[in-house]
Amino acid sequence: MRILFTGGSGKAGRHAIAYLLAQGHRVLNVDLTPLDMPGVDNRIADIADAGQMFDVMASYAGFDELDAGTGVPRFDAVVHFAAVPRILLKSDNECFRVNTQGTYNVLDAALKFGVRKVIFASSETTYGICFADGERKPDYLPIDEDHPTIPEDSYAMSKVVNEATARSFQRRTGADVYGLRINNVVEPHEYARDFPGYVANPASRRRNIFAYIDARDLGHMVACCLAVDGLGYEVFNVANDTHSVAMSTDDLLATFYKSVPVRHALGPRDSFYSNAKAKALLGFDPQHNDWPSLLDG
Q: Which residue numbers delimit the NAD-dependent epimerase/dehydratase domain (predicted)?
């Protein structure tokens, strides 16, 4: 597929692009910072500028596409990851503006140019736990896509707005628009760097619901979305199968979630951030779950 990928220079995006390239796709990365990766062409553009998004959506992906002499090819899909990636980086209103206006612009341009598959990054923060002032416990466990999304911060608010925007665009166009509520992204080198601290202090993982998504498995999730057509508008939790601390699920429940209803039995290392919907509808099958052995190695 010929794919326009926004935000591919970021932590999550660069791993997703590497996975897509390995699958044989062509990727044009649209970002404010170029991605230095063989096989990737870059376009420097601002998602918050509608004119720039319309321009790149009708763009060559590289000089080689000039040779055919048949005009600019259409993109088969758009993957939209570009955003201010969390709170406490820019002012709250600027985070909200860039993320919401940027997502509107990307969706508007993609769908007006006839793209029929758009995948966009939402967030675990939509559930209101990650960036809460103080502690917010889940309404129930494991958290699935039906859990209420009532955040208190500008970043998560922007992601909830983006989901509503995407749903509205999908209803008007009938295209496939899939949102990914991405859990805490872990790159391969971060296991040895960070997980010993999680083992020593399990409570430090409470805001991420003790869950994570390996960046390589996030790439797999994007590929699964590209491969499955006809779902219309859907949102999916994206997480690995296991939690990220050296405590059993029962011990975590007893220590941190005594008053929280548990809707079904969980195995000793099962994540509290359910990926069951992605498995059922997309064939999502995360492979990088054995982090204790990575620490030992």
A: 3-203
